[in-house]
Amino acid sequence: MVVNVEYRLAPETPFPGPLDDVYDALTWLFRNAGELGVDPRRIAILGESAGGGLAAMLAIRARDRGEVPLCYQVLIYPMLDDRTGSVRHVAPFIGTIGWNEAENQFGWSAFLGAPAGGATPPPGAVPARVENLAGLPPTFIGVGGIDLFVDEDLAYAGRLVDAGVPTQFHLTPGAYHGFDFVVPDARVSREFTAAWKSALRTALGPAVNG
Question: What is the CA 44 to chain-centroid distance, rounded?
Answer without folding.
Answer: 12
